[in-house]
Every structure is written in structure tokens, then in C-alpha cells.
Amino acid sequence: MKFEVAMPEEGHSLPYVANLSILFKEVPLLDRAAAARDAGFTDVEYWWPFGSAVPAREDVDAFVDSLDGVRLRGLNFYAGDMAAGERGLVSWIGRETEFADSLVVALGIAERTGCRSFNALYGNRLDGEDPAKQDDLARVHLDKAADAAARIGAQLVLEPLSGADRYPLKTAADAVAVLDDLGRENVRLLADLYHLAVNGDDLDALVTVHTPRIGHVQIADAPGRHQPGTGELDIDGYLAKLQNAGYTGFVGIEYVPEPDTVTSLGWLPKTRRGRA
Ligand SMILES: O=C(O)C(=O)CO
Fold this sequence. Notes:
Strand content: 5-15%
CATH class: Alpha Beta
GO molecular function: hydroxypyruvate isomerase activity
Shape: globular
Structural class: alpha/beta
Strand order of the largest sheet: 1-2-3-4-5-6-7-8
Radius of gyration: 19 Å
Family: Belongs to the hyi family.
Number of domains: 1
Bound molecules: 3-hydroxypyruvic acid
Number of strands: 8
CATH architecture: Alpha-Beta Barrel
Largest sheet: 8 strands, parallel, barrel
InterPro entries: HyI-like, Sugar_Epim/Isomerase, Xyl_isomerase-like_sf, Xyl_isomerase-like_TIM-brl
Distance between the termini: 42 Å
Protein name: Hydroxypyruvate isomerase
GO biological process, one term: glyoxylate metabolic process
């Protein structure tokens, strides 16, 4: 007699969140949430959506209003001039006021939207500054932001990045060393599979060693930073491994779409884009 053996289910069931600082750039920032909603997404995230640490009140209102019909799940603190290569103010000696200001603005947005995850980009190494002093400042900033986040039940995430030589967090271990030093339960690792793969990190080791420290995951294929299927990464495979290892959070879709966002989303059935 032959029995059917139940095979473990293929794939994963982690929920997705559309990163609207990189997707739907065909339309202005304030129209992107509506475009994402029309494409079936219910959850969104953004890099800092304003041109400075202290946006005008009307700009914050317009941003919050634009989120009609979707939930804001993640927001980067102000990271400086990203287009010019700046990658965060957490360790930037001399820009402490901007970091503090953006924290206040982000918490105000959290209050109005329910957003409970903030990406604190660490910042590049600075000419003429002692890296140890930058790390000391980062510890002070992260501690302060972690306290503020804890008061509303939110987390901070620390992200290793590729493509930025002067940015010191390149691997999961680099970020986890900062987390260990800080010892704060609500400061966690942002595992962007694209950045980690480009930096040569071992994604299997990421899953086996670091899953309990992960607060957020983002995806893009590598090389290229485009949609899944355009490169060599087994993105679905790693997401399944992360889920099997206990990760239950969101997966941020953070790739440069080719040739355009709607066409690029062919890999993701509409029924998997949103949550009931
Ligand atoms: O700068 C980048 O590439 C990021 O992912 C920022 O969050």
C-alpha cells in the first residue's frame, strides 16, 4: 500500500510591505500610497519622505493624509542627503540637532499612523573624526531613540548597507556588534538580503545565527537591485528559511523596478500583496 507523504509547504507566508521611496516612483511621493493600494498593497514603508529633518507642518499633514487606505509600517529617520551619498545621522558628529528633530517628527507621525518601526541609518565615517567618537555618539543617539520608541511600543532597526564605502555597517555581524554593545531589546537588525549579499555576507549564516535579532527584512535581487528573478538570489528560499527559523515580521519590497513598478510586480500575485 502506498501512502501520500505530506511534504512541507513550499515557499513562505510572510507579509509584504511596499517601500514607496523606491517603488511607484512613476508618480509623485504623495500619490504613491494610492498607487500601491490600487495595486493590492495594504502595508507600506518609506525612507524619510521630506527634504529636511524638520518639514513644514503642512508637509507632514499631506504625507499622513496620503496614506489613506494603507498602513504605514516603517519609516527611516532623516538620513541627510541620500542622493549625495549621505547615509544617516546616528553617528554624525555636528548634526545632533537634526537627528533629535527627526526623531520628534517621526514619533509624531507614529502617533498619527500607528507606525512602530524606524530605520536608524548609522551614518558614514567622517574625514578627520575618530571612528570611536562617532560610535560613542551613535550609542547616545540610539539609546535616546530606543527610550522614545519603547514608550510607544516601537522598535528601531539598524541596517547594513552596500554601495557606500564609508558606511561602517556592511554585514549582519557588524550591526549585531552594535546591538550587543547597546543591549536594548527594541533595537534590532534590518536584514536587507540585497545589501548583505552584495557585501558578500553569508545568508545561510544570517538565518541560522541572527534570525532572533532580526526586526525587519527587505528584498531585492542581486546583482542589480531589481525585482526577484532578475538576479541570482534565491529570495523565496531565504524568506522560507527565515520564517522556519522563527521570523514573523514584514518583508519590505525595496528594489529598483524594471521596466516600471506595475510590470515588475509580476513575480508577486495580487493576493499576496496585501493582508485581509
Ligand atoms: O540607502 C539604501 O539603499 C537603503 O536601503 C536605505 O534604507
